[in-house]
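Exam revision sheet. Question 4 asks you to relate a sequence to its structure. Input first:
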Amino acid sequence: MTGGPLSGLRVVVTRPPRQNAALVDALEAAGATAVSVPVIDIVDPVDEGEALAAAVGSLVSGDWLVLTSPNGAARIDSNLVAIGVRVACIGPGTKAHAEAAGLSVDLVPERSIAEGLIEVFPAPPEGGGRVVLARAETARSVLPEELSATGWVVEDVAAYRTVGVAVDDAGREACRSADAVAFTSGSTVNHLVAEVGVVGLPPVIAAIGPATSEVARDLGVMVTVEAGVHTIPGLVAVLVDHFRDTQSVRSRPRPRQ
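Answer key, structure tokens:
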């Protein structure tokens, strides 16, 4: 597509092609060329989901199932969720996948990050209650720690694993010659930097939210822009704003000497 606010720009996307459709479509709708350089894949946990099924199946009315990503939501068997178990999702994409799986979603925080959910999560009932977190095998500790601190009994269960994918020479060159990279998670930052190094990244680094930005900074990557709304549309919008502002500055007439 041509003529959009990102027309003529090449933006690297790093998730598997089967999971990149929303981002690719949004970038192309804005006029950009999406450059696929997948650096991760999403696979089942080592136990093939046995622990997840047991944990979800043991929840009772008043307990909570927390889904932090579409990948976790897609691996839930709604037939295992007892009546009265409440469901919380981080982000509209996770909510959509949960509902597609047959779950009724009770809580979605306004901010699509763990801290946003912590802010609005209810206190446990008298006598206590359980929360099952269905998420990546390796994830930030803030959610289980903060929920436990408020009195919930938290079971953090691996719903899936994120594994690295090697980048070939063509992928390295495509990344190096692109205008920007749109990072949707900390794991994509970790794996892309491991494959191409900081010097192999495009000049503009866009992060979907503060957790992703933190991973980037810890690796020595300077984040150019961070989405204020931590969603795919928010990520594309912040890229549009950045390049529009950049173009505006470049097009201003220079003052006479």
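Marking note for examiners. The chain is about 35% helix and 20% strand.
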